[in-house]
Amino acid sequence: MTRKRYQEDNTDFRNNHDRWLISYADFITLMFAFFVVLYAMNTIKANKDNTTQTPASFKSQTSPTPNALPCLNNQVSISNNPLISADNQLLTSLLPAQTPIQFNLLNEPSETISPSPSDSKKINLDKQNSQISAIATQLQQRLQEMINKGKVQILQSNWGISIDINASILFGSADADLNQDARQTLNTISSILKAEAYPIRIEGYTDNKPIKNRNFPSNWELSSARASGVVRYFIQQGIASERLAALGYAENNPIADNNSEVGRARNRRVLLKILADDIDQASNDIKSLKHNLN
User: For residue 76, what are the contacts with CB-CB under 8 A and spacing of at least 6?
Assistant: First the structure.
C-alpha cells in the first residue's frame, strides 16, 4: 500500500513540475512592461528639453485673466489633481495651449434710450412755447402805454402771438401811408422781432363802408396796401423779407359790429401774427379777439 501511494505521488510530481514556468513568464512580462514605461518616460523628458515652451510659460498663457472666472481646460484640471504624477504633467506641457474661456463679470453697457418722436416733439414745443412767452412779455412791456389806451392788443395762443393795432394810430382816413405814431410803434415791435426767426404775417382789415377813389378802388386794395406798407417798413428796420407776408382781408372777419362808429373803428386795424408751428388754429385768435374786445 505504501509503495503504491509513493508511486502515485511521484507520478503527480512528474506531471506538474513545469507549472513554475507560468509564473516566470508573467514576471518577465511585467518586467518588460516596466522597462518600456521607463524608456517612454525618458524619451518624453528628452523631447521636453528640446522644446521652447516651458511649464512656466505655459502657466502664464493659461492663467486666467483678472475679473474673469477660471478657465476650464485640461491643464488646470490635471495640475490640480493630486493623483497625477509629476511625470504625467509633463505630457500636458507638450499639448498646445488652449484659449481660456472667460466669463466676464462686468456689467453690460447700458443701452442708450433715444427719445421717441412724440417725446422729441413735446420737448420742441415746450421750448418754443417758452420762447413765444418771452417775446409776448417783451411786447406787452414795451407797448404798455398803447395797450392801456386800447389801441394795441396782444394775445398769445398755441400757434403764436397776435398784435392787433388800430388803424387810427398807423394811417390817416382812406390812406395807406404810415404816420409818425405808426413809425414809433412799429420801431418798438421790429426791435424785438428782428432778433427772432419766427415768420410774421401782416393782415390788413377795413370796415364795411365802401371806398372808391383814385388810389383804392375798393377795400381790398386799401387793406392790402396797408399790410404791404407795414411789410416794407419792417424790411427797412432789418427784418428778413423771407419771414414776412402781407394779406388784405377788406371788411371780412370783423371783430365788432359795423352798425356803429365804434364798431367800425375797431374793425379798421392791422393784425401782426408771429407764427409758431401750429398755425392751423389761427382762427382761434379772431374768436379770442372778438371776445376780449366785446
Answer: 62, 70
* Interval 104-135: pLDDT, tens: 555 555 555 566 666 676 777 778 888 899 99
In this structure, are residues 272 and 165 in contact, taking their beta carbons and an 8 Å threshold?
yes
What residues contact 84, with CB distance under 8 A and at least 6 apart? Answer: 78
C-alpha cell at position 109: 453697457
- What is the value of pTM for the model shown? 0.55
Whether 142 and 192 have beta carbons less than 8 Å apart is answered as yes
Q: Which residue is associated with the grid cell 486666467?
A: 64
Alpha carbons 86 and 158: distance in angstroms, whole number? 86
CA-to-CA dists, residue 182 to 98, 119, 187, 192, 234, angstroms: 89, 43, 8, 16, 12
Q: What is the pLDDT of residue 204?
A: 96
Enumerate domains of the chain plus CATH numbers. 117-293 (3.30.1330.60)
